[in-house]
Amino acid sequence: MDLSIFSLAGKTALVTGGNSGIGLGIARGFVKAGARVAICGRSEAKCADAVADLRAIGGEEAAQALTCDLADTDSIPALFDAASSALGGVEILVNSAGITTRSRADLTPLDQYERVLRVNLTAPYVLSQCFARARIASNQPGSILMLASLMSEASRPTTSAYTASKGGIRQLVRALAVDWAPFGIRVNGIGPGFIHTPMNQVLVDNPEFDAWVKKRAPLGRWGTPQDFEGIAVFLASDASQFMTGQIVYVDGGWLSTF
């Protein structure tokens, strides 16, 4: 087999939430595979640190950053245009940014619920529209990756907003894959299990929850951002050219047992 089908050499990618956690792990994988990436996030300091990390892997041209607040969906077209201009076009889009709020459903303020859905579900929809319009207009194929979750399939107490958003992502992957397949635009999802990221640090620091995660997952540990490098490169590359509308769960075997 020609392993060059896994290469992203010469490709360009926009990764939302690429300044930390899973998004940064995916960006690292892309740079290692030869791509140039633009990451975006709300914190300029975190973006600067992430760009330094990525350039240490791939050189000065490997990465650059844009600051954004995806809750402001009206600003997303300008964000995409800026990324496209900086990269000379965007061939791969990764919708990785996400937020959560933790409270029982009847105690969750509506504005918090709506903000989670706006960042986790509406923003990926709008950004994917921008990407697809650009690829269709230029008659070029492309690849979109969405971050789903275990919460796309099940739920836990105090996660109603997050669960709703990630259930929506599961179906959005399928809907966009069907709409844009005629144009060579593939849409797939990655479903993380319990991953040691800044967003989950409060759970990692809870001894009881930490022990439960390690006992419940067949592979016996939390996932790490590094666990997403390979699967993201695979889904973005020609190695997966006959895959679309799928979600691949990177969960340590979580959904395979009970």
Overview in brief:
By secondary structure, the protein is of the alpha/beta class.
Helix-strand blueprint:
Layout: E1 12-16, H1 21-32, E2 36-41, H2 44-58, E3 63-67, H3 76-87, E4 92-95, H4 110-137, E5 142-147, H5 160-180, E6 185-192, H6 201-204, H7 207-216, H8 229-236, E7 247-250
Parallel strand pairs: 1-2, 1-4, 2-3, 4-5, 5-6, 6-7
With helices defined by DSSP (H or I, 4 residues minimum), what is the helix count?
A: 8
- Label the CATH architecture: 3-Layer(aba) Sandwich
| Overall mean confidence score, pLDDT | 96
CATH topology: Rossmann fold
The tally of beta strands, per DSSP, is 7
Proportion of residues in β-strands: 5-15%
Counted up, domains total 1
Structural class: alpha/beta
> What pattern of helices and strands is seen along the backbone?
EHEHEHEHEHEHHHE
Name of the CATH class: Alpha Beta
Low-confidence stretches: none
